[in-house]
């Protein structure tokens, strides 16, 4: 009788281990990382909007001090990543005043060439901060890139 009891307990134990003892490989949801990314994207947009005039003046002064000042209008706007749909930095755009006034952001489009030997980042002055409806602003170029560090 004890032998049958031991066998029954062993069978239940083995069944329990097989059913519940295996650990499923799951990935935890990292709310901090997600919120950090959202705050970083929103934070970049806020910082660029808040300091765009000061950044623009600083860049113009830097260019003037290095004898590369241009005689066109300039403005600092956020860079938006077309693929990620978020703010990733800022850029100074340059061109005729009327065209520069139309620019709301610089769209960044990325790709690679020759089996990823070359990484390409195209920077296009556009008339909207909405990455789903972008129109290039003709006659405007990018004269400086501003990295925002958090």
SSE layout:
Layout lengths: L1 H19 L10 H35 L7 E9 L4 E10 L1 H6 L2 E9 L4 E9 L14 E6 L4
Parallel strand pairs: 1-3
Antiparallel strand pairs: 1-2, 2-5, 3-4
Description:
Keywords: Signal. The protein is an alpha+beta fold and 150 residues long. The protein has one domain. It is built from 3 helices and 5 strands, in the order ααββαβββ. A 5-stranded mixed β-sheet has the order 4-3-1-2-5. The protein is elongated, with a radius of gyration of 28 Å.
Structural class: alpha+beta
Query: Which segments are poorly predicted (pLDDT under 50) over 5 or more consecutive residues?
Result: 16-41
Number of strands: 5
CA distance, first residue to last residue: 71 Å
> Taking strands numbered 1, 2, ... along the chain, how are they ordered across the largest sheet?
4-3-1-2-5
Task: Please provide the ordered H/E string of secondary-structure elements.
Answer: HHEEHEEE
What percent of residues are in strands? 25-35%
Shape type: elongated
Report the major sheet: 5 strands, mixed
By DSSP (H or I, 4+ residues per run), the number of helices equals 3
Fraction of residues in H or I helices: 40-55%
Task: Evaluate the radius of gyration.
Answer: 28 Å
Mean pLDDT: 79
Keywords: Signal
Signal peptide: 1-28
């Amino acid at each position: 009788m004890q032998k049958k009891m031991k066998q029954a307990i062993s069978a239940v134990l083995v069944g329990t281990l097989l059913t519940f003892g295996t650990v499923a490989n799951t990935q935890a949801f990292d709310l901090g990382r997600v919120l950090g990314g959202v705050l970083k994207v929103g934070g970049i947009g806020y910082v660029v909007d808040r300091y765009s005039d000061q950044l623009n003046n600083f860049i113009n002064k830097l260019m003037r001090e290095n004898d590369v000042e241009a005689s066109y209008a300039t403005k600092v706007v956020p860079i938006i990543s077309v693929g990620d749909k978020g703010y990733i930095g800022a850029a100074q755009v340059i061109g005729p005043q009327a065209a520069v006034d139309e620019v709301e952001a610089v769209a960044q489009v990325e790709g690679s060439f020759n089996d990823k030997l070359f990484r390409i980042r195209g920077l296009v002055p556009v008339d909207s901060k909405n990455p789903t409806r972008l129109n290039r602003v003709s006659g405007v170029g990018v004269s400086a890139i501003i990295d925002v560090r958090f």
